[in-house]
Amino acid sequence: MFVIRVRKETVIICFVSFFVVLGLGTLAFMHNFFAQNDTETKSKGNFIKYVEFHPTYECLKKAMDADISSHTNSGDIKINWIEVLSYLAAKYGGDFKRYKESDMDEIIKKLKDGENIGDITKNMKNYGYYNEAYTAVLGGFLGEYKVQKKSGENSEWEEKYGLKVFSPIAKTFPFCHYDDFGASRSYGYSRPHLGHDLMAAVGTPVIAVESGEVEVMGWNQYGGWRIGIRSFDKKRYYYYAHLRQNRPYHVDLQEGKKVKAGDVIGYVGRTGYSSKENINNIKESHLHLGLELIFDESQKESNNEIWIDLYAITKLLENNKSSVIRQSDTKEFYREFDVDIS
């Protein structure tokens, strides 16, 4: 007969190891359970399906300035412009025709006095919805970045806080626009205009508003030569359409390429309204700019797409234009000053 003797320390180690493994296994199970639950919840449609975004330019600018000022003045309590705008949206039920400057002054003062946005909005039924929706619209717009002050070998960099997004039209190039979101369109079928038109001359450099990845390039009979760029957080899809005939895109652009806010991506034209490629059937040269919000991938290319009015946002972006230079040999435009956007 064999007698097996086991030391007490060995028994303790075995018990400890058993419970550690059991605990890790439980954690893994719970993680997978909640991840699967989250996926199932989204598949059942528990995500935002409708957004209207109607803050005026003056409202956006005042909230942005308060945010930037609080981040650039040491010692100040930091203001989050999206929280301010979401509070006002909840207060007005999304109707910014009711906007009063004094209402913004009041909420900003409360925040500067140290009140918490959660306490301020705890009894506001729709604040959570507006905060999620407005974060999807404006989430990549403000933050810290570095900007190149001089181009060439002797470049210098400056740290800044402010707009990290750019006007869709390059600096010094004129354009005009008006609020045309929802206007009727008849080519192909009767439909509302789900974008914003910027009237500019053929060949005007088109700028990437936000950093992201090129998801789509090519011909579309409604948009002509067009580009689709997805923000890195996947919430925003920028659509640039009616680009120039024959040479619509910047030479460096291709599907799957990552672009930086302020890069030249293409050139204004008037292509589109034709099932045949490379046709100028748009009467006036202009850039069609669209912004789609995506809360779930099922919303892409579906009957549940969310496009927002960009008139006020386009006016806001005019506060940050990308300076460009032209290479005489290739006739391509490139950004003059680089940025480092985290």
Please give a quick description of this structure.
This protein has 342 residues and is α+β, with helices and mostly antiparallel strands.
Give the SSE order as H and E letters.
HHHHHHEEEEEEEEEEEEEHEEE
Proportion of helical residues:
25-40%
Oligomer: single chain
Low-confidence stretches are 1-43
Number of helices: 7
Tell me about the largest β-sheet.
7 strands, antiparallel
Radius of gyration: 25 Å
Assign the structural class, choosing from mainly alpha, mainly beta, alpha/beta, alpha+beta, or little secondary structure. alpha+beta
Mean pLDDT metric: 88
**Percentage beta strand:** 15-25%
The count of β-strands is 16
Distance between the termini: 71 Å
* 3D shape: globular
What does this structure look like?
This protein has 342 residues and is α+β, with helices and mostly antiparallel strands. Helix content is 29%, strand content 21%. It is built from 7 helices and 16 strands. The strands form 5 sheets. Strands 5, 7, 8, 9, 10, 12 and 13 form a 7-stranded antiparallel beta sheet that branches. Strands 2-1-16 form a 3-stranded antiparallel beta sheet. A two-stranded antiparallel sheet has the order 3-4. Strand 3 and strand 4 form a beta hairpin. Helix 2 runs antiparallel to helix 3 and helix 3 crosses helix 4. The longest helix is centred in the first third of the chain and has 36 residues. The protein is globular. The N terminus is likely disordered.
Overview features:
7 helices; 342 residues; 29% helix; 16 strands; alpha+beta; 7-stranded antiparallel sheet; disordered N terminus; 21% strand; 3-stranded antiparallel sheet
